[in-house]
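Running this now, will post back.
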Amino acid sequence: MKGRGAWSAGPAGGAGAEAGGLVSLLRRAVLRKARGRIVVTPLVCRWCGGDQFEVVADECFCEGCCLPLGIADGEVHAGGSTWGLAASGPSLPWPGRRFREAADIRCPAGHDVFQAAVAYALAADGQVHRLSVGLRCPADGALRIHLDNVRVVPSGA
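Update: finished.
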């Protein structure tokens, strides 16, 4: 995958993230280590059960209760470890350790609420080492890789 900012077409309407093509898009996005595995799952708010999110920088906020999912710090992963997101190398366009964008994310049609899915690349020991986040606009079906195979480092590293 080339990276963030590229939108592709998916089915419009009320299809969920999995049926809307987002999960299959993410399966092709993340790289795994030898003897590791990939886990891809649609995201649902753990507090209210909502599946639509506003996206600011490297975090998704539930439209229903406005709470963050925990993508940036590891709380979205049930594995118990917290993390930070680190640039994968100097060739990526991100200026620092964090992936802040100047404005809220919008699809090509201007919508700002998305379904989201995450792909974790797990090492053989079960620790997350790479993360990709995909977005799907439920109004028009637009799909995007928002965070593309970002390296995950344990908190404090």
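The longest strand covers residues 143-154. More later if anyone needs it.
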